[in-house]
Design a protein that fits this description.
Strand content: 15-25%
CATH class: Alpha Beta
Number of strands: 14
Number of domains: 1
Order of helices and strands: EEEHEEHEEEHEHEHEHHEEEHHH
Number of helices: 10
Largest sheet: 8 strands, mixed
CATH superfamily: Ribokinase
Structural class: alpha/beta
Strand order of the largest sheet: 4-1-9-10-11-12-13-14
Shape: globular
Helix content: 25-40%
Length: 294
């Protein structure tokens, strides 16, 4: 079994602020730092640092050397990544004193995926292999369809949620990773139990993992659901914590671990991630997780 993560590679411009800027307000930031990120890159790093072999597909701009280097140094296969003219994708992130964040995304090279490139990237994968998708690149419905025709197992984190997700045939997804906002957008429900009820009704064969911030996470598998509390940790920056959760969860599944073990490991890794600044920089290795939570 091989895993292909077809996703974004971004630079994150992180501004530390007293509070998230309100409409019409101008305020000074306390600091500004630049990190490598993007949901695609973060999840590839999390998979690799958790010990899973992962190949990344996507686009970087002419400024993308640092993005490729951090992937390589963590063990991610970037042989499929292409460099195109122009700027790489980037985000502007505000992080307040409590560690909460808000994010403005610019697609850049992440929006340059072509059909020819998608077909080429998927050509080395086949039945039983895993495709991991987020929604920070273009043509998600086409990539999902191509992978389904190959009988790949499709894992979807529909973030950020928009009309492109609704254009996908989501019945083809084997596993969903959602937070409460994405769960509400997808189902029309607000309460976690009702979100999961609706997901069970619409996608009875799929596993659904719903992350709930401080309230932990819930896993739904063919009607069975179980809750994983968080592991207490200082909250410095929540950016990338969900991506860390996704990568470590999938790494445990690829090692033939059970869903409960995957939930526990992912929650432990996320507890470390929120205690550090940045997205990619905050993702721990499996050895770090095992040392912190023996």
């Amino acid at each position: 079994m091989k895993i292909l993560n077809f996703g974004s590679l971004n630079y994150d411009y992180v501004y530390t602020v007293d509070h998230i800027v309100r409409e019409g307000e101008t305020t000074a930031s306390l600091s500004m730092e630049v990190f490598c990120g993007g949901k695609g890159l973060n999840q590839s790093l999390a998979l690799a640092r958790a010990g899973a072999p992962v190949c990344h597909a996507g686009m970087v701009g002419e400024d993308g050397g640092r993005l490729l280097e951090i992937c390589r140094s963590s063990g991610v296969d970037v042989s499929l990544v292409r460099t195109v003219p122009g700027k790489s994708g980037h985000t502007i992130i505000q992080v307040d004193r409590s560690g909460q964040n808000c994010i403005l995304l610019y697609g850049g090279s992440n929006r340059r995926i072509s059909l020819d490139y998608a077909e080429s990237a998927l050509s080395g994968f086949s039945e039983g292999d895993v495709l991991l998708l987020q929604n920070e690149i273009n043509d998600i419905p086409i990539i999902l369809d191509l992978a389904y025709r190959k009988k790949m197992r499709i894992v979807l984190n529909p973030s950020p949620f928009d009309k492109n997700i609704l254009a996908c045939d989501l019945s083809r997804v084997s596993m969903f990773f959602l937070n409460e906002v994405e769960g509400s957008e997808l189902t029309g429900e607000r309460e976690p139990d009702r979100i999961l009820d609706r997901m069970q009704a619409r996608f009875p064969g799929a596993v659904c993992v719903l992350t709930l911030g401080r309230d932990g996470a819930v896993c739904l598998d063919r009607g069975d659901r179980f809750h994983q509390p968080i592991f207490p940790s200082p909250r410095v920056d929540t950016t990338g914590a969900g991506d860390t959760f996704t990568g470590f969860f999938l790494s445990e599944i690829l090692r033939q671990g059970g869903l409960r073990d995957a939930m526990k490991l992912a929650s432990q890794a996320s507890a470390i991630a929120v205690s550090r600044k940045g997205a990619a920089a905050s993702i721990p290795t499996l050895a770090e997780v095992q040392s912190r939570f023996p």
